[in-house]
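Researcher: I need the complex structure. Ligand is flavin-adenine dinucleotide. Inputs:
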Amino acid sequence: MIVGAGPAGLTAALKLVERGATPRIFEATNHVGGLARTPTDGEWRIDPGGHRFFTQSEEILDLWKSLLPPDEWISVPRRSAMLVDGHFVRYPLVGRDLLTQMGIAKGMRGAGSLLWSRLWHDVPTPGTASFREWGTHEFGRHWYRKFFDGYVRKTWLADPAEIASDWANQRIKPITWRTPRADDPAEQDVFRYPRFGPGQLWEAAAARLAESGTIPNLHSQVCAVRYDGRGWTLELHDGQTVSGDAVFSSMPLRLLVETLDPAPPRHIRAVAAALRHRAVITVAVALRQQYDMPYNWVYTPGSEFRVGRIQNYGHWSRALAPHDWKGSYLGLEYFTLPDEDTWVASDAGLGAIVEQDLRALGFDDPVIDHLMIVRSRFAYPVYDPTRERNVARIRDYLRQSHPTLHPIGRNGMHRYDNQDHAMLSAMHSVDRYFGAEVDPWRVNTERGHHETGVQK
Ligand SMILES: Cc1cc2nc3c(=O)[nH]c(=O)nc-3n(C[C@H](O)[C@H](O)[C@H](O)COP(=O)(O)OP(=O)(O)OC[C@H]3O[C@@H](n4cnc5c(N)ncnc54)[C@H](O)[C@@H]3O)c2cc1C
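Model: Output:
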């Protein structure tokens, strides 16, 4: 039995079917794809995350390619920038831009501050340093404050001094001192993308499963996960129960522990209760005005913006908008906590915030022709200094007490996974179910890997 029809749950199902098992999938919502779905409204499509398909795993790449034919994939050059003091500064940061783009005086100040932090401060200890310590060492105080401090406050909704930095080496690239050459293949960063957004892949996965008789049960929220000493019973929100020999769960780890019956010991429930999530609201706006910024993503760390990041859908896939659309199509991402004003704001309230941000972006009188709002409640597992220890304690407890219960995926393992890592944890869990000595918890634990290059 599989809880969740996101990338991890669907991958587990594909692999189980491949090996002759007959899984059943229970999905709380009315769609497959989880966070990587593509909500649509007529010909308008929205990618709630801005999902770059990039992986270093051949196995994942082969699976992606097997699910969608070549002409349904497009190659997208990755171009990101940070909008700071009115300048679009390329990201990953390039030394020459930093030294000149905002004026030589500011450039020299940044370089001096970087030199100072490198010469006079010790290298922060991996695993224990806060994000602020890590960032100040990596970029120098001046550039850290300009580019990262505000952004991290806005997106992580926490003081960077209180956030662990263990994800930063993986996710944030250092300054490049050599100016990248556009014609050098080694410098290029190109990712794959399903023409109609990420959900196209996951709908194809569901269609593949349907061919072998496995159809995800939608509107089927799992409310209780019971173990009677021999097998498992899932209770759904409508009171229905289903039984099986193993459970692959991509529901948030905290909720899994809460719904387990018999209840785990009190100390396990307490550490699970401390696992938190940030939510994201993506507002897609189709603007009549043309606004050509040559980037897929623009980060907006400044306090003049409420929005944290802007996606330029026209630079992802033109098929996300109607074919005759001539204006701009942007996705504004608002990071929030589930009890904050932005999360509970009405659509009209959000519309007003969006309009303010569009003005800050330079639209004097924005004419919005179409607007879509997607709220993702469990978007980001929060990384605080206790996360690693708490998750390890839950993992060890589950492994010892319930070897046939397999937490998988981003929220299932409370880890900052991209699709490929969520999928790999599902694949390894299926291998484990069939007796292989693999550890799905080791996926995505490399401290220093960056995901760039050309993905063919
Ligand atoms: C803003 C943002 C940007 C991102 N960008 C990228 C990117 O560029 N590239 C990339 O590869 N990845 C990206 N990701 C990550 C990607 O979305 C996730 O890695 C992937 O969706 C994780 O898959 P999953 O199946 O583990 O979890 P999810 O996608 O969260 O799926 C879990 C599913 O379980 C269901 N569920 C939960 N609880 C229950 C329950 N009790 N009963 C039944 N069903 C339940 C949920 O409804 C959901 O459908 C991004 C994510 C976000 C939020």
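Model: Summary of the prediction. The mean pLDDT is 92.
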